[in-house]
Design goal:
- This protein is α+β, with helices and mostly antiparallel strands and about 110 residues long.
- It folds into two domains: about 1-30, no CATH class; about 35-110, no CATH class.
- Helix content is about 60%, strand content about 15%.
- The two termini are about 40 Å apart.
- The mean pLDDT is about 90.
Amino acid sequence: MDVMDNGVIRKATAEEIAEIESRNATPEPKVVPQLITCGQGREALYNAGLFGKVQLAIDAIEDPDTKWRIQNAWDYRPAWERQSPFVVTMAGILGLDEVALDELFITAARL
């Protein structure tokens, strides 16, 4: 493998090759968006096959205050914050762990 050193191309040392290969093999850490639009979230839920389960989950909430707050957020919030009570509550009801919820937000941000 060749490398450029001060404008001169030369053969890489074994240490340089190992370092280059290590950098190329290490995946970039995932950046989880902390805010997505409601439309992005709904589309991501639909694509994941979860959209139809949301209203059923909301309807099953027994506490009237919690149910109203979750329904209000589902119907009217223009954006969803990753750590909001709405998102955390719905993730739990839908059976999404932290990793799955992060993936949903990452996917949603791309839509």
